[in-house]
Amino acid sequence: MQQKTSQTLYAYWNDVRGDRIAPRRFDIEPAQLGDVLSETFILESDEGKLPTFRLAGTRICEQFGREFRGSGFVEMFAADDQAAIAQNMANLKRQGAAIVLEAEAKVPGRGDVCFEIVLLPLVHTGTSINRMLGSIAAVDPPIWIGSERLPQLDLLRVEQMWPEGRPHAIAEKFRNQPALIPELASARLVRINRRSFRIVDGGLLDK
C-alpha cells in the first residue's frame, strides 16, 4: 500500500478487528476516518451475488463523475479483468484476505489516471463475511479529474494479504468463531472510550 488513504483505512480496520478475522460492520465509526472518509466505500455481498456499492464517498463519485450506490463493484473494470477481480473477492469472503488493487483509467485526449484500491472484510450479520470496507485513492490526480466521467478501469496489479498469516490459519480461526447470538441482531450498540458494547433490552422480570 502506497497511498495515505489506503494505509490509514487499513490501520483503522486492523485496530478495530483486534483478534477477530474481521470486524463487524457496526464497529466501524465513520467519524474516526477523518480526511479519508470521502475516499472510502462499503460493499454488500449477499450469498451468490457479486458485491454492490452500498455507500461511496463524495470524492470517489466526483472523480469518476457518477453515483455508485447500487452498482456492481466489478463493473468499474474492463470486461477482461472482471473475472479475476471477482475471484479475488471470493477469496476475501472465504479466507478473510485483504486485497490491494492497482488500476488505471485511460482518458483520450487527457491521459491516464492511476488508482490504488483496498478491499477489507466485514461481518454484518451472523459469522460470515458479507460486507467489504474499501477505499479508492487516485495516485497523483491530475487537475482535470472530476470534470468528466471516467471510463472503466484496466487492472494493473492485484495483491492479497492475510493479516494473521497464511489463509489456512485464518480459515481455521473462522470455523472456531462463535455464532452471533440471535438476540444481538436487535441489540443497541454503545461505545465508551473506544470500546463497543451491545445492550439487549429485557432481562429478568421482577416477580
Features:
207 residues, alpha+beta, Beta-Lactamase, two-stranded antiparallel ribbon, 30% strand, globular, disordered C terminus
Describe the structure.
The protein is α+β, with helices and mostly antiparallel strands. The chain has a single domain (4-168), classed as 2-Layer Sandwich (Beta-Lactamase), CATH 3.30.450. It is built from four helices and eight strands; from the N terminus they run H-E-E-H-H-E-E-E-E-H-E-E. The strands form two sheets. Strands 2-1-5-4-3-6 form a six-stranded antiparallel sheet, with helices on both faces. A two-stranded antiparallel ribbon has the order 7-8. A hairpin with a 2-residue loop joins strand 7 and strand 8. 30% of the residues are buried.
* Beta fraction: 25-35%
Question: What is the helix fraction of residues, given as a range?
Answer: 10-25%
The strand order across the widest sheet is 2-1-5-4-3-6
Q: Look at the structure and give the CATH class.
A: Alpha Beta
Q: Quick check: average pLDDT?
A: 82
- End-to-end CA span: 59 Å
Total beta strand runs: 8
For the sheet with most strands, the description reads: 6 strands, antiparallel
Specify the number of helices: 4
CATH fold label: Beta-Lactamase
Relevant CATH superfamily: PAS domain
The radius of gyration computed from the alpha-carbon positions, rounded to a whole number of angstroms, is: 18 Å
- The low-pLDDT segments are 178-207
Report the principal-axis shape.
Answer: globular
In the CATH classification, which architecture applies? 2-Layer Sandwich
Count of folded domains: 1
Q: What is the helix/strand order?
A: HEEHHEEEEHEE
* Structural class based on helices, strands and sheet pairing: alpha+beta
